[in-house]
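PROTEIN FOLDING TASK:
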Amino acid sequence: MLRLAIYTAVFVGGVLGQTVQRSAAVSDAMTGISSSAAQSVAESAALASDDPVLLIHGVCGHAKHVPLKADDCTVAISRRQFECVMNILSPGVRVSPGVMNRIATTYAELLAFDRAARELEMDNSLEYQETVRWLQVNALADLLHRRLEKESGTVSDAEIEAYYREQLPQFEEVKLQRLVLPKNNFAVDGQQKFEHDAQRIAAELRERAADGEDLERLQKEGYAALGFSGAPPVTDVGNRRKANVPSEVRDEVFSLRPGEVSNVKNETYSFVIYKVEARRRIPEKEIREEITRDVAKEKLERAVKAIIGNIRTELNEKYFGTASAR
């Protein structure tokens, strides 16, 4: 509820809260709104934007330090005003009636604090003015960022097609197999000799794999030759795009034609051989959602950069004890 407290304390009293004397019209409207806890969504949707949805009694019109009395006056919060607060607290998310009720209660309590603080003239303090300034800056930045996200999220067919053409290499996909021989076996003495034997066996298996022998069977032979009794890992690693292949072997793997194998790779814990079973270019229609997300992300990043790209801060080292942040 902290975010609610911050925003409501600043904006409720001065912007959203409209003080009105109690009247039959307002009371009747509120009676119609709150008479049934089981009010349907259709009935709620029928309310006009200016219809009151919350009445807060006893928070206005008092002299300084005079205790508040219930029903002296009323603050009427319209549907539009309350939904504005809800959108600030939970943008784009529909909350339960119970949460809305708690927010309404907190709204009223904060408005009472707001009025009491103004009676003490706290709204004239430097602390208040700087707090409001900071919250206004933060609120505007937040609202702008939401607008940029919404605008960036609108991606046209032409943008999708252009991105697909420009990024064709990243949409290449290979069906990959991988033969792995461990470089170490801590159950035996002479680790250096074991690693040398593993490298020799891997080289022999690589030549046989290049001649078309089955990689899974070759890996089982390699494990047995090195004295491992357990089952080796599966060789089929499925379909992989460039981003899902280790960077140190990516270029070689994607230069292979179907049926070809890589050289033996000396990786951190193993000697590894890669074999490309098949390859294809993923059709645009299969990855439109992914492209849409990528394009929207890039558009948002460009929009943000256009705003903050030229910003540079200079920090007073006597105060911050460090050089400029950026």
